[in-house]
Amino acid sequence: MAKITKLEFQKRNKERVNVFLDDEYAFSISAELIYKEGIKLKDEVDFEKLKILAYKDQLMKCRETAIRIIEKSHKTEKQVREKLILKGYEEEAIEKAIDFLKQYNYLNDEYYTQLFVKEKLKSQGSNKIKYSLIQKGISKEIIEEELNNVNIENEKSIAINLAQRKIVTIKKSENDKYKISNKLYRFLLSKGYGYDIVNEVVKEVINEKSFN
Known about the structure:
The chain is α+β, with helices and mostly antiparallel strands. The chain has four domains: 1-45; 58-107, Arc Repressor Mutant, subunit A; 109-147, no CATH class; 154-206, Arc Repressor Mutant, subunit A (Orthogonal Bundle), CATH 1.10.10. It has helices spanning 31-36, 47-72, 77-86, 91-103, 109-120, 126-135, 140-147, 152-170, 177-190, 195-206, and strands spanning 2-9, 16-21, 24-30, 44-45. It has a four-stranded antiparallel sheet with strand order 3-2-1-4. The relative contact order is 0.07.
């Protein structure tokens, strides 16, 4: 058994408390946990209680880290999980932190996908958006459900706008209609547009009077 002989807030982080056992520094712990567990001076603690406190503190630290990760910008479940792993948290703590974020709707892959698709459609095609979301760990079911709602005509309209701007640049160094078409074709494919849209857009832009 050891006796708690001193409790002091850390100078740089007032949310954590340094715990001294038998007049020697032992460990730091969340101030919230100190309050919840009713820890006070002159309490006697054994090894088992210390293990429990360390476990609970790990859970709270992991949860707080997860919250900080999503404060700056929306993240997918995979992105949060990977960042927590990199910070060295154990699997059980990570799972509980993820569950906490989901419970309060701080982490929602469906909502993330909606925002991502809406933003990226301004400059990218469905194929590139789909690949990006897969890389971020979004399930194919969620991706397909959201992309199925994309208005094809709107997507084509954006592709035309991109192509019209791109062709101006291409024509500065290329005069051959066939080569211009190929470069425009490759450009739109790189932007993630499907073959059907690319074919229609290239044909339309190439045949515009402004090109002739």
